[in-house]
Amino acid sequence: MSELTSRQEGAAVLVGVDFGLPHFDSELEELGLLAQTAGLTPVARLACKRKAPDAALFVGSGKAEEIKELAALHRASEVIFDQALSPAQQRNLERQLDVAVYDRTFLILEIFAQRARSHEGKLQVELARLQYLSTRLVRRWSHLERQTGGAGVRGGPGEKQIELDRRMIGESIKRTRERLSKVQKQRGTQRRQRERRDAFNISLVGYTNAGKSSLFNAMVKARAYAADQLFATLDTTTRHLYLGDARRQVSISDTVGFIRDLPHGLVDAFKATLQEAVDADLLLHVVDASNPHYPEQMAEVQSVLREIGADAVPQLLVFNKLDALESTQHPLHLQDEMEIDGVQVPRIFLSARTGEGVPLLRAELARQSGSAPDTMTPAADAELHDATDGLGTIPPLTRERSE
């Protein structure tokens, strides 16, 4: 049995390079969670330090040999890097390591392709996927040599295969943008209808796996999918929430979670979904209080909010998973304030799972939304839209090695 055929399908070696940045995850914990979410099995992890990426192999020839030996030892079929690789680096590494090589961007795209359910979500992921693949065409595959002329053409070289592939992907990107534009117009119409009803719009934002969907379900008694995993839900769901203290209803939306180094292509593609955050009257910034890295996660969320133009929207911090904290870590008060970018922001500690602190949140939402004449009763709390169309999932990006 050859070395290649003896490799374990889906077994992956995780590699991270520390360039001196403060957010470097030396244990590669988050990359491991991403790999597992994408259906891979991490079998080994390797972290190293460099001042700058190697132009050809990202990690240098010596470290590449070490990674190759590690992959062979654990019979790994794939190597996943925690940073983005250039197409040339990816190609060179695959030749050097003799296994498939992917980066963090590919892994996130793979997860999004598996999880998207709504028509809009699928279009957004497809657009990001096509944009990613278009960059991989540059010196990526060795089979992209110039083709010969077709039938009836005498002599002379034909169009390069890489040019054909590039044009096909370009046309696909154009078609997907047009289809997505139509869906965006429909969502804009829904948004304007809510504005005409004088609705107070609230959007849940936060780092992935902070418990946004669980809190959403606890607030509106919905059945939105929630799980202890990264990117459990990608599709925006909006519902009415009746606040008895303010004698009014508000509109509350559950949005896609953020993550460190979220690919810009995904941010651009999901702007239609993230527009719910931009147009909101209040952002509920949900934080996993039990995660020791929550300050860094909060900073990443603030960065994405700035990127999409939602940083000026008022926020209410919701420190979730109070039940997961040790008794010695419990706050003295469930409601206080915390400074973000020089501004004092109200904060509430709660547990979406047990319900502790949720009444405090409802009371604070009633205070911030103000009073308005009743237009609905609590019994009429209903889903505005949950744009699932039953079309199935987008096929995941094929994990095949380049020749």
What does it look like?
- GTPase that associates with the 50S ribosomal subunit and may have a role during protein synthesis or ribosome biogenesis.
- GTP binds at residues 206-213, 231-235, 254-257, 320-323, 351-353.
- InterPro entries: G_HFLX_dom, GTP-bd, GTP-bd_M, GTPase_HflX, GTPase_HflX_N, GTPase_HflX_N_sf, P-loop_NTPase.
- GO terms for molecular function: GTP binding; GTPase activity; metal ion binding; ribosome binding.
- By secondary structure, this protein is α/β, with parallel strands linked by helices.
- It folds into three domains: 9-113, Rossmann fold (3-Layer(aba) Sandwich); 116-138 and 160-196; 198-371, Rossmann fold.
- It contains eleven helices and 14 strands.
- It has an eight-stranded mixed β-sheet, sandwiched between helices.
- A hairpin with a 2-residue loop joins strand 12 and strand 13.
- The longest helix has 36 residues, at 161-196.
- It is globular.
Continuous helix count: 11
Low-pLDDT regions:
138-158, 373-396
Name of the CATH class of the largest domain: Alpha Beta
Estimate the mean pLDDT confidence: 80
CA radius of gyration is: 24 Å
Biggest beta-sheet profile? 8 strands, mixed
**Looking across the biggest beta sheet, what order are the strands in?**
12-13-11-10-7-9-8-14
- The CATH homology group name of the largest domain: P-loop containing nucleotide triphosphate hydrolases
**How many domains, as an integer?**
3
CATH fold annotation of the largest domain = Rossmann fold
